[in-house]
């Protein structure tokens, strides 16, 4: 069954009590990117297993920790690892951290991952910025939208127009080292 609003709210309340200032920006790290948390100052680290209702990360290279601190002047959360359907998690479990971050007050979410490319010129280490995607898992019935909708999380079918914010995409490309841009 989908994560209840109450369960995600409980996780958000528990997390809010752990930090002086809740994050406004969250970065979900895919494989090999967890070290980005080392850039935070005034950081506090919490294992996912200690956060109410959070799933357990089982992927090698995903530490399964939430690090909250400051990146420059911005209160920021770095999620070291995420959850995958192939680990046996239901789509409704995979969305718990993102929904919890939203309830904490996060307004900007950056998702990362390690991926391969069919283009030989895009080898390991290149940075790509996604403009759009096709939800093939959703076509197979593996969607976090399945089940009763709770409007407190937002509409059942959110607009996917500019789901990947154009201004943030431009900023990411402008900040990326030129030799790593595709």
From TrEMBL:
Pathway: Purine metabolism; purine nucleoside salvage
Reactions it catalyzes: guanosine + phosphate = alpha-D-ribose 1-phosphate + guanine; inosine + phosphate = alpha-D-ribose 1-phosphate + hypoxanthine; 2'-deoxyinosine + phosphate = 2-deoxy-alpha-D-ribose 1-phosphate + hypoxanthine; 2'-deoxyguanosine + phosphate = 2-deoxy-alpha-D-ribose 1-phosphate + guanine
NCBIfam families for this protein: PNPH-PUNA-XAPA
Residue span, Nucleoside phosphorylase domain: 24-175
GO function terms (MF aspect): purine-nucleoside phosphorylase activity
Domain of life: Eukaryota
Descriptive protein name: purine-nucleoside phosphorylase
Enzyme class label: transferase
Keywords, ordered alphabetically: Glycosyltransferase, Transferase
Any Pfam family hit: PNP_UDP_1
Gene Ontology cellular component annotations, sorted alphabetically: cytoplasm
Gene3D superfamilies: Nucleoside phosphorylase domain
Enzyme Commission code: 2.4.2.1
Family listed: Belongs to the PNP/MTAP phosphorylase family.
Any one biological process term the GO annotation gives: nucleoside metabolic process
């Amino acid at each position: 069954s989908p994560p209840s609003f109450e369960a995600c709210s409980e996780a958000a309340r528990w997390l809010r009590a752990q930090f002086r200032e809740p994050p406004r920006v969250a970065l979900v790290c895919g494989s090999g990117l967890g070290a980005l948390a080392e850039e935070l100052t005034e950081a506090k680290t919490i294992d996912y297993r200690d956060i109410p209702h959070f799933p357990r990360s089982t992927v090698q290279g995903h530490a399964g920790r939430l690090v909250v601190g400051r990146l420059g002047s911005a209160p920021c959360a770095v999620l070291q690892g995420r959850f995958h359907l192939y680990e046996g998690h239901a789509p409704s479990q995979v969305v718990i951290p993102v929904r919890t971050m939203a309830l904490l007050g996060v307004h900007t979410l950056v998702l990362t991952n390690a991926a391969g490319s069919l283009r030989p010129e895009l080898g390991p280490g290149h940075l790509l910025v996604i403009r759009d995607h096709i939800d093939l898992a959703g076509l197979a019935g593996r969607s976090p939208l399945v089940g009763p909708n709770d409007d407190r999380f937002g509409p059942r079918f959110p607009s996917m127009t500019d789901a990947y914010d154009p201004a943030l995409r431009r900023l990411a490309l402008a900040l990326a080292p030129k030799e790593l841009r595709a």
